[in-house]
Amino acid sequence: MNVQFRPEPSASVSVKTAIADCDIHPARATKDELYPFMAKRWHAHLETYGIQAYHGMMEGPPYPKAQPNASRRDAWPPEGGPQGSSLSFMQKQLLDPYNVALGVLNPLASGQGLRNQDFAGALCVAINDWQIEKWTSKDTRLKASIVVPTEDGAAAAAEIRRRAGDKNFVQVLLLSRNVEPLGQRRYWPIYEAAQEIGLPVGVHAFGFGGNPLTPSGWPSFYIEEMVGHAQCQQTVLASLVLEGVFERYPKLKMVMIEAGFGWAPSLGWRLDKNFERLHSEVPHLKRKPSEYIRDHVWWTTQPMEDPERREHLFQVIEWIGWDKLLFATDYPHWDFDEPSRVLPAGVSDANREAFYLGNAKKLYGIS
Questions:
Q1: What is the pLDDT of residues 47-57, one digit of tens each?
Q2: What's the whole-model pTM score?
Q3: In terms of Cα–Cα distance, which of 319, 269, 275 is closest to 299?
Q4: What is residue 128's DSSP assignment?
Q5: How far apart are CA 196 and CA 255, in angstroms?
Q6: What per-residue confidence (pLDDT) applies to 15?
Q7: By C-alpha distance, which of 214, 293, 202, 304 is closest to 256?
Q8: Does residue 245 contact residue 258 with C-beta atoms inside 8 Å?
Q9: What are phi and psi of 322, to 5 degrees?
Q10: Contacts of 267 (CB under 8 A, 6+ apart)
Q11: How big is the CA angle at 316 (ends 311 and 321), to the nearest 5 degrees?
């Protein structure tokens, strides 16, 4: 197989100053690592019934990955365990060499999207305690995301409020595939609680909702799932806007994670165009849909659209705002973005600093 690289003469600026990595995926070293944080009832449940998500498979993700845990081949910790399960190896491979001053943890196998709601709640609480015990208390550069049993709005809101004021946490984490679009009323308690305690809500690609991975059915290839994250995130964002979530919770901040952002302007234009003719259907909206998106939504890179002409990328970013863009590596996954190769030349020093660190510190309230 021949591998061809497109010349990137402009992507050679090294990142020597501190950066924020807004999408790091920690993993459990062993199956029973969560047991100290769970009642014994759930130990037996996990061993007897396993984790049953909203999809038809017995276990695992809804589409097989080319790599275990979709991770880099060099990310296996030398002491054993899956990729992303070793703090010392993460420090050596990511935090220290890339001068990461702030790393936001986003656990994916967290208990969200399980059919047993009580078990989902117990697992999410355990994951949150585990993040403190294993990660944030051991390295102050790391901050956790509050994972919640998404389909149980009341329990999710209770867990968010339980973590209020805890400096180990900087956001609430949801996934993009759910039983219903995230603007639906069943999820409103989550947004109410997040706004109340002043944390942004991150919506990460993936998850389980019991539906096909794409709006048109089950795909044939993994690459279809990868690009489909953008389509899924568009439906999530349209639902949040049109159901009036941002009108109802005017201080709510959302972060779209790992689904790109190049599609944001076209979604805004399409929503605005239809809004002109169909406003009567959604009279609870007081402004154009694009205005809600631009005011309430932040976006992580990785994946980051890579047009051949850099001015096209700059035009997209100018639409969403340089102050709304957050750098992410997606460590330890295979599509990891190396910091020095993300931004092309032509970015001002002020925008570069905001992109790599300033925007994240401001959003997450890190001094």
A1: 998 888 887 66
A2: 0.93
A3: 319
A4: H
A5: 17
A6: 56
A7: 202
A8: no
A9: -60, -25
A10: 234, 237, 238, 293
A11: 115
Region for residue 99 given its phi and psi (left: phi exceeds 0; alpha: psi -120 to 50; beta: otherwise): left
* Residue 232: φ, ψ to 5°: -65, -45
Min mean pLDDT across 72-86, 110-124, 212-226, 351-365 is at: 212-226
Place of tokens 């990461």: 100
Identity of the residue numbered 288: K
Q: Which two tokens stand for residue 71?
A: 């991770």
What residues pair up with 297 in beta bridges, in sequence order?
Answer: 254
Amino acid identity, position 64: P
Beta strands in the chain (DSSP E): 19-24, 100-105, 142-147, 169-177, 201-207, 254-257, 297-300, 325-326
What tokens were used for 43?
A: 């130990």
3-class DSSP assignment, residue 247? helix
Structure tokens at 316: 């997209």
- In the numeric block, the tokens 């030349």 are attached to 345
Residue carrying the six token digits 């510190």:
361
* Res 187 pLDDT > 70: yes
- pLDDT at position 58: 64
